[in-house]
């Protein structure tokens, strides 16, 4: 992947990617706003694609992200809380699995920051709160000790 940023004028920059280009107009929308928007959009696309691959449908999807940043430079993300709200024709267990799969496995942007950012989430599915302030299973630099795992002989 390659992205090229070209200064246009004032605080406007053009971002060119292999798939297209767009203008970043600072400070109207800052690079950190784009960064957080990209993180949230990454997981949101998973919540549309995974169900579709299972012949399920997600509607009315809204994902809110709230970040607490460090006070001193470089002002990294300390915490990120994602709030998912959507309807689907799946049960609550499946809806929860979609979110967890996105966070733990598929969303590249979340997985890029998870070693430095404590990430939590809440899920409202079909109008009911099914998960509240859950932490990611892995991330924030923590190691999970799974103990000894027996494997099948090869």
What does this structure look like?
- This protein has 154 residues and is of the alpha+beta class.
- The chain has a domain of 106 residues: 2-Layer Sandwich (GMP Synthetase, Chain A, domain 3).
- It is 29% helix and 38% strand.
- The chain is built from 3 helices and 7 strands, in the order βββαββααββ.
- A 4-stranded mixed β-sheet has the order 4-5-6-7, with helices on one face.
- α1 crosses α2.
- It is globular, with a radius of gyration of 18 Å.
- 16% of the residues are buried.
Order of helices and strands: EEEHEEHHEE
Q: What Rg, in angstroms, do the CA atoms define? A: 18 Å
* Largest beta sheet: strand ordering: 4-5-6-7
How many strands, which pairing sense, and closed or not: the largest β-sheet? 4 strands, mixed
Q: Considering DSSP H and I runs of 4 or more, what fraction of the residues is helical?
A: 25-40%
Architecture per CATH nomenclature, i.e. the level-2 architecture of the domain at 30-135: 2-Layer Sandwich
Query: CATH top level of the domain at 30-135?
Result: Alpha Beta
Strand content: 35-45%
Seen as an oligomer or otherwise, the chain set is single chain
- Overall geometry comes to globular
User: What is the mean pLDDT?
Assistant: 90
Characteristic terms for this protein:
four-stranded mixed beta sheet, globular, 154 residues, 29% helix, alpha+beta, disordered C terminus, 3 helices
In a nutshell, what does this entry contain?
This protein is an alpha+beta fold.
């Amino acid at each position: 992947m390659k992205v090229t940023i070209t200064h246009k004028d004032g605080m406007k920059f053009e971002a060119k990617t292999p798939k297209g280009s767009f203008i970043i107009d600072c400070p109207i929308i800052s690079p950190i706003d784009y960064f957080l928007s990209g993180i949230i959009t990454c997981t949101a696309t998973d919540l549309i694609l995974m169900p579709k691959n299972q012949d399920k449908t997600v509607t009315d999807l809204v994902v809110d992200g709230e970040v607490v940043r460090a006070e001193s430079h470089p002002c990294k993300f300390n915490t990120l809380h994602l709030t998912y709200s959507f309807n689907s024709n799946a049960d609550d267990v499946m809806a929860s699995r979609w979110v967890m799969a996105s966070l733990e496995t598929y969303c590249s942007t979340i997985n890029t920051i998870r070693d430095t950012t404590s990430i939590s989430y809440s899920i409202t599915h079909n109008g009911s709160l099914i998960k509240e302030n859950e932490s990611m299973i892995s991330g924030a630099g923590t190691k999970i000790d799974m103990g000894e795992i027996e494997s099948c002989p090869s």
